[in-house]
Amino acid sequence: MDTTRLPIVATLTALREWENAHTRHISTASSHNSGGNPMTTMRQIQLTEWGDESVLHEANVPIPSPVRGHVLIKTVAAGVNPIDVTTRKGLGPAAQLADPSYKPFVPGWDVAGTVVATAGDYTGFKVGDGVFGLVSFPSPAGAYAEYVLAPAHQLVKVPADVPCAQLGGAPLAALTAYQALFEVARLKEGERVLIHAGAGGVGHLAVQLAAQAGAQVFATASAANHEFVRSLGAQPIDYRTEDFRAVLGQTMDVVLNSTGQQTFLDSLEVLVPGGRIITLTSPDPLDVARERGFEAQWLTVHPDRTQMQEIARLMSLGLLKVHVDQVLDFSQAAQAHALVATGRTRGKIVLVP
């Protein structure tokens, strides 16, 4: 059984069983090829200059060696996020921390897979454990690779019987939604929240989390996505044919914006006095909102193990589901970026090695 070719409906429970049956073959950071010889290199998607999708290319590079405080993960799935596209262009916080002309940059921060090696220190994980998490963001993490060396404290064990593609697509988007709603906006039961782009990667998870928290949820989406958004727990508003300001009036306690400056400004019209608006895009005019008495914050997501554990718990109970729009091979990373850049995908795009 080749773990790099698991069907997308496979779960890491099955993968762990396979790995446990083969742990006698894993004595170092290397895996083995079909001839039983240790493998020392891996496939990786990288770039050596910022640019469009064409700068992404595949390379064979050495498999990382474990270091203290980290675990080596054999990747099963890696999510693709808008920040990956932004960074590839040389923009955003992650691009400020990398120089691809000096050292090839490997995109990606979402990873799900199995631990294949440690440095021998205590990490809370053992070889064969299924793990997932948001790794090192916004510093380079190199998740578009067959193996990822990740800080152990940023990972959690995978929930049983959740498809691998969902696990790979969850961390960054789910943490963004969770932090925006609960860490920053402090959303409470019974409050009313508007989530823009409710069918998108962050949006569709934010809808579910807000609904689970007992909030009354409204979400902008195209007509084609109304049934999908409604099934997640939100009342949809067609952003193409309806003015959400006229539909809602000044009734929202919280707004989550991910669609730009004009939407941010328009959203101020639906907030109750003292309402909270959280934006994921920059630059949005936070001062304008604050001058009008609203709480306004711009969120950059960060790894958080405790929050990831809660996300894993909700996924294990079936209360939080990542909709995976497409699963593509690492060799199709450029296509994945092009899809994400359209802003029209439903849920997440996921890469598999």
From TrEMBL:
Organism this protein belongs to:
Rothia mucilaginosa (strain DY-18) (Stomatococcus mucilaginosus)
Q: What protein name does the entry list? A: NADPH:quinone reductase
Q: Where is the Enoyl reductase (ER) domain?
A: 51-351
Recorded hits in Pfam families, A to Z, give:
ADH_N (PF08240), ADH_zinc_N_2 (PF13602)
From the UniProt annotation, give the residues forming the signal peptide: none
Q: Which PANTHER family match?
A: ALCOHOL DEHYDROGENASE RELATED (PTHR11695), RETICULON-4-INTERACTING PROTEIN 1, MITOCHONDRIAL (PTHR11695:SF294)
Which superkingdom heads the taxonomic lineage of this protein's source?
A: Bacteria
GO MF annotation terms: oxidoreductase activity
